[in-house]
Specification:
By secondary structure, the chain is mainly alpha-helical. The chain is 69% helix and 0% strand. This is Acyl carrier protein phosphodiesterase.
């Protein structure tokens, strides 16, 4: 799941460190794909660090339930089949694009159906003290936090996730993600066709997309 889908499960929580923890694995991945941390089984006495750890573990649980769901298997596969011909000639693998596209579409639907407010998510991240975050990262084994904080400050400042409310921007978001792997993933024609495909698939998902959140919520409660 993407940032906003993770946030949805805990959008009523006021502990900013827990909220940050629920998206921190993906923030780190975006900041530097070579960063690999596994603090899941570590323990700490500080309340803020414990919240970050709890949020981190919640992220892992949600992702595990999502990626093993029939919802994800079905819709990522369907999008792969639809997007494959659309991106012919691109170095991007259709299965990769289908995976990311379904996550971005459900983020878009959470915003456009009024189920969460993006600004509230950013407010939570901005409330966290960087000294606490740095302590957590070093505790988790990251010796040099420079790249992460450079990315994190930019992430909070540019408010990029607001653009997810515009369905037409999903193709651009997909391009940005793919550019972490491929220098020039799409032509303008690819982007136009991706947009058309995503808009059509969004309408298909609209009546049923909340089922995956209900399913995951049930599994979290049953643990």
């Amino acid at each position: 799941m993407n940032f906003l889908s993770h946030y949805y499960f805990d959008s009523d929580i006021t502990d900013c460190y827990f909220i940050l923890g629920t998206v921190l694995p993906d923030l780190l991945k975006n900041a530097d794909k070579t960063i690999v941390l596994h603090p899941e089984k570590l323990e700490h006495t500080d309340a803020h660090i414990k919240s970050l750890l709890s949020g981190w573990n919640k992220h892992l649980d949600v992702d595990r339930y999502f990626h093993s769901s029939e919802f994800f298997a079905t819709h990522s596969h369907q999008l792969k089949l639809l997007l494959g011909p659309v991106i012919e000639g691109s170095p991007v693998k259709p299965f990769f694009l289908g995976h990311i596209a379904v996550e971005l579409i459900i983020d878009n639907l959470l915003i456009t159906t009024g189920r969460l407010k993006v600004e509230s998510f950013y407010d939570q991240l901005k409330s966290c003290d960087n000294t606490v975050i740095e302590e957590f990262l070093k505790f988790a084994g990251l010796k040099d936090t420079t790249r992460f904080f450079r990315f994190f400050e930019g992430f909070k400042k540019d408010g990029y996730l607001h653009s997810y409310s515009e369905t037409e921007q999903i193709a651009y978001a997909l391009k940005r993600i793919c550019m972490r792997v491929w220098d020039s993933p799409f032509t303008p024609l690819h982007e136009s066709r991706i947009t058309e495909t995503v808009i059509a698939y969004r309408q298909l998902l609209l009546p049923e997309f909340m089922s995956i959140f209900d399913e995951i919520e049930g599994k979290l409660l049953a643990r």
